[in-house]
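This follows on from our talk about sequence and fold. Go ahead and set the record down below:
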Amino acid sequence: MLGQMFFAVVGTVLAYLVFHAAQILYKNLVSPLRRILSSPPIPSYFFGNFREIGDSPDLSANWERIYGQTFLFHGMLCVNELYTSDLKALNHIMAHPAIYERSRTFQEVSRRLFGNGILSAVLDQHKRQVCFDCSALATLKRTTPQRRVLNPAFGTPQVKLLTEVFIEKSTELRDMWTSEIGNASGTVEVLKGLRNMTLNVIGQAGFGYDFDALNPHGKSSELQDAFAEVFHSPNAKFYSALRLLQSMVPILGLVPLPGGSAISSARSRMENIGRQIIERSKAVLVSQDGVKATESRRDLLSVLMKANMSAELPESHKLSEDEVLGQIPAFFVAGHETTSTATAWAMYALSLHPDVQHKLREELLSLDSDNPTLDELNALPYLEKFVREVMRRHPPVVWMQRTALADDVLPLSQPIVGRDGREYHSLPIRKGQAVRLPIVEVNTSEDVWGPDALEFRPDRWDNIPAAASSVPSVWANQFTFLAGAHNCIGFRFALAELKALLFTLVCAFEITPAVPKERMGPVRARQVQLPSVLGAKHGTGLPLVLSPLRGAALAVFPQGRMRMVDGDEVRREENETRLSAGASRPIASLTMLTLGAGARRRSRRRMPEVEVICG
């Protein structure tokens, strides 16, 4: 009896898989794009081109040179996927979110990992979760009602309030690295430190949670461990492929594939921590002193919950408890991984371009403050150009995907001569067609940016090409944060954090390569591209040589004693007490000493020798 049931179940599953494979084959064969567009060879009928795209960051650009801006390639199970970097086509896709939605595969994978947050929201949910009009609740009647809850948390006023947190956490990272290398040059694995710093930022600024990730003696948090298990474990890439397969073949969700228990455990831990954070924030909001407490709490979750609990917001437009819970891992992923990656690329670019580094440092040191506001940072023109060039040349997320929810006609700016010999000025799109949006290739297109598109040159932003105005964009004429209804809602947050990090680190260290340029290159982990030592056995990492500059802050340890052997005047920030060069005195608690702003601007020499005696 049991044997019959077993074979019946296995037979049913196999029949379903055969049926599903037949569906894919039929759709591929009848697709009108198949007779029009060329495609690269298929190395595997199971993986399609999936593995080689992940293993070779330059492959898409090479395909463009062979097949043009628009062609077909094959994903897992050989599903046809349309690739296009044609700007007219991309603008059409971005302008029609009701037709071109986030792929069901992406939504399902995100839902399995994070729940019902913004990363997995479909269009109707997304409208309710996100408001792209930055005005206050008073504009209720003039805006789409559903797009109101998340926007206040990511608007410019809120990001300005959080800049102090960005500077504070950047300073903690600077001091950790200063302590690590002492008063001499030293090689530092910067990606690990940046990840821990941005983790602290999203904990504090995102939901008022202290990860204490930069404490070398601290223990990692439960939420941090859960995230690392899913994204940074040695098997993360394999698990990612299995999750993708499960989302494409839903019945496989019933099969206990490898990594499933680890993902379920991580999701459960994320939810447990998330509920604790939400309950704490809710208690503050409804307390007797909730108004005062809320004004003092500036984290994104508190602002989101305040907007969601507003009496002016109709009940039908409020986020459910599960949707609020889903925002925590969404904040965690979007605010942690991508910003640390962008900063790693920025530091790598500085190490390769000492002239750019010198010019940027000169401008940053012109600020008469160790704790600049966002307005002060935004007023620095070369910093702005540098950040734009980093995000153009090295976008952290390298591609996104959309799926057509209905038949459509996709216009093209450049006509295509099809395989049938006919000229096409548009393409017929069938419902269910997957479309790859290549962010890196758009940002480095020679048709847009000229023959030096692959060069890192911040001064290009003094006179950008006219063609750049055609790039679908929410910021700086580049595709990095996408455009339209599904643009990156947190782009202001990410840019402010990046500028704060650059201000703190570039003023503190001279940055030079630790390994030859030829041994470095981009490595892709899912949709994120990181700078790394090629062929490294322990995954991604970015070693750089940091040399302390005179004028950087000095960390003083508890019960320690500091002596400036050869240096300038320093200031004890606690009480503005001045310590002259050569002085030696005990420090009773953890204290930060920095050179005065004037001394920082006057000197470009290395930091003086420092003697730290721990008592």
Notes: Residues 274 and 325 are 6 Å apart (CA to CA). The first strand starts at residue 70 and ends at 74. The first helix runs from residue 2 to 30.
